[in-house]
Amino acid sequence: MQSLPVILVIGLGLLCSLQARAQIVEIIDETGDVNTFGDTLDQPWHFALGPGGDLFIADEEVGHIFQIDPAGAISTLTPLELVYDVVVHADGTLYATSAGFNRVYEVTPEGTATQLAQIPPGSGFATLVLNVAVDSAHNVYVAGQSFFLVDDYTLKIAPDGSMTPYIDANGDGMGNTFSGAVGVAVDSEDNVYVSGIGSNNVFKVTPSGTISEIIDSSGDGAGNGLASPTGVAVGPEGSIYVSGSDNAFEIAPSGTITQIIDAAGDQMGQALEGSTSIAVDPGGNVYVAGATSDNAFRITPNGTITQIIDSAGDGQGNPLSFPFDVAVSNEGRVYVLGLGSKNAFEINMPNVPLLSLGGIAMLISAFGIAGFRSLARRAT
What we know:
- By secondary structure, the chain is mostly beta strands.
- It has one helix at 357-379; strands spanning 10-11, 14-15, 23-28, 44-49, 55-59, 64-68, 74-76, 83-88, 94-98, 103-107, 113-118, 127-134, 140-146, 152-157, 163-165, 181-186, 192-196, 201-205, 211-215, 232-234, 240-243, 248-251, 257-261, 275-280, 286-290, 295-299, 305-309, 323-328, 333-338, 343-348.
């Protein structure tokens, strides 16, 4: 669908336009690449974007990493075991984790896969999750936990496979403890951010090893608490974004904490429930997926919240269920991964400003309700 901004009124120096609807396309479904190699998509937990725009999807059940190139062609990389999460370095090297087997793999841009590390088992049975991030020097950071939160796995894995903890249960060593490692991210200065779903907080770990708590269960300190933080993302200006159970926060470089979305979602009846992931584009727009509300939202830098996809998926009979991960390209293309629906969607957001409430009132005054509705239909 074309993005069709319609110039409506120019008055008092004000230019208003209506925003066209986003284009939503299902880019892979449960048949996977069956038409080419016969590999189905069954349990896609996470995905990541490569530097060339390729999308890599980790499928735990079938043990494959699916690769979707910018033209939409689907292929699979070397089969691995119980692939849970995947991250791509700026040079195209891919790192993947195997939940249950406690392994970390390295896959070269040419497709050669090797086991980088075997994480020793703790007192727990096996890892429940094992998320991964990578810094500029190819140091890999895993964040995971065993069943029942018996053990945390928070290890820095060097390029030679050697492993050292980057944080433990003592947290910052100043009384702010850490448990239930889940989300992990690395910024441009190689600072590591890790969320604790058990301790309800997020820590920053500098390259020199200094650890500080950047948000705790009190959230913004204004009555908006943080519970079960999962996703962590780094914004273009250095802000850190964290998704809680039904909300999300921005932590500015100054340390100021702001809740950017809550359980009410877009405040227009579209709720946010069970948020599991968060992403930020180069323009500072934030994207949050609601796993149990079957939707995803965009929050602009000025705080405008828009639901960009819901359970109807692309609206063409391809639904979205239990979206577990969200990613965004440098060009602003948004990707949402449906764990329950066994598919993924690409959402192209129109570069057209939203119409303000004041603009809507002015249009209704100028054209009447019937005229405004007619213009809205033309623009969407």
